[in-house]
Design a protein that fits this description.
By secondary structure, this protein is α+β, with helices and mostly antiparallel strands. It has helices at residues 11-34, 43-100, 104-118, 164-171, 180-183, 188-195, 228-291, 295-335, and strands at residues 123-129, 135-142, 157-159, 175-177, 200-208, 211-220. It has a six-stranded antiparallel sheet with strand order 3-2-1-6-5-4.
Length: 350
């Protein structure tokens, strides 16, 4: 954001004091030219006027200093208001993008230019923690050149250990690296940034429900490019990205649970139909076995009944497994706050 430089209000003060000095120089020059008069009291009105001018000059100087301080304060407040407006506009744009799509990397790419205006930098990155919490998928947006890709894709995968990203996610606190060269021996990602020509970095954690899910990163090609003020500017953006990423994960989890729920329901329905047919077969075979006298026929009927009962036992195991899976999914969805299919659906064994 471009700010208006503060004006120099010392010129009126200097003009007042130059006028006083000039007014004092006149009686001094007159005295040196004509000498001290016989009646020194003639100088008294001049001294009184000169002292009055000094008092008025001091009062004017004090007044101008107060007005200058107030003006500087108003200009700083104006700059702070402009910064806040930029933040709100960026947040509003982010919410609009996320409302259209739950794709967090895509929203990040579209907002990269706005973030670069909010925090001047050379490149912006987004690191998202995997489901198992062992590695990061990183996305990069080049703020000074137009993106050639229509959709973002992961560029580098970092492990959590020995990275600035992992340190920030574990601590939940932002980190400002004024000199990447000093951090390069200890962190792998700092070493990669240094070899790419960057000198400083700012890493802000994405935290949702007290859990770190990634980081928002800005880097610059000059040292000590970031400050605490820029951390405060990025934190609301990081919070929105964190909530959006958790919502995207829950959306994917919900779809997976819905699919598994439908498959389990279908398994139970098919198992019930097959079991009904098997019980009919077993019943008829039992009646035939009692009515026939031929030993060979009885042996064949006994074999049919045994295999049918075996299938019935397998179907019973399938129904038990499907019911257990439904219960597990219901418990998981309740813990994650996901809506279940139907109102308070209770899974009862068949």
């Amino acid at each position: 954001m471009n700010t208006v430089p503060l004006r120099d209000d010392r010129a009126p003060v200097w003009a007042i004091w130059l006028l006083i000095a000039f007014s004092a120089a006149q009686p001094i020059a007159w005295a040196l030219d004509v000498g001290v008069p016989r009646h020194p009291l003639v100088l008294v009105p001049l001294l009184i006027v000169w002292i009055a001018l000094l008092v008025l000059a001091a009062m004017a100087t004090r007044r101008i200093a107060a007005l200058s301080a107030r003006l500087h304060q108003q200009e700083r407040a104006h700059d702070a208001t402009l910064t806040e407006v930029d933040q709100l506009q960026t947040q509003n744009a982010m919410l609009e993008i996320i409302a259209r799509s739950v794709d967090v990397p895509l929203a990040f790419q579209e907002l990269a230019s706005r973030l670069a205006r909010l925090v001047p930098c050379d490149r912006i990155g987004l690191a998202l923690l995997s489901d198992d919490g062992r590695e990061f998928q990183t996305y990069t947006a080049r703020v000074q050149t137009e993106e050639r890709r229509s959709r973002p894709r992961p560029e580098i995968v970092f492990k959590v250990e020995r990275t600035i990203l992992g340190t920030v996610v574990r601590s939940g606190k932002p980190m400002i690296i004024d000199d990447l060269q000093a951090a390069a021996p200890d962190y792998l990602d700092a070493n990669i940034l240094l070899t790419s020509g960057f000198k400083s970095a700012l890493v802000v954690p994405l935290v949702s429900r007290g859990r770190g899910v990634g980081t928002l990163n800005v880097v610059a090609r000059r040292a000590s490019a970031f400050s605490q003020q820029q951390v405060e500017a990025l934190q609301p953006i990081a919070e929105i990205l964190a909530v959006a990423w958790v919502a995207q994960q829950l959306h994917v989890t919900l779809g997976r649970h819905r699919t598994m729920e439908v498959m389990s329901d279908m398994t139970l329905a098919v198992a019930a139909e097959i079991n009904s047919a098997l019980q009919t077969i077993i019943g008829h075979c039992d009646l035939l076995q009692r009515s026939v006298e031929d030993a060979n026929v009885k042996r064949d009927l006994h074999t049919i009944m045994g295999q049918a009962q075996r299938i019935a036992d397998l179907l019973d195991k399938m129904r038990t497994a499907a019911n257990d899976r439904l219960r597990e999914m219901a418990d998981t969805m309740s813990q994650e706050g996901l809506p279940r299919h139907g109102e308070s659906k209770q899974v009862e064994p068949l």
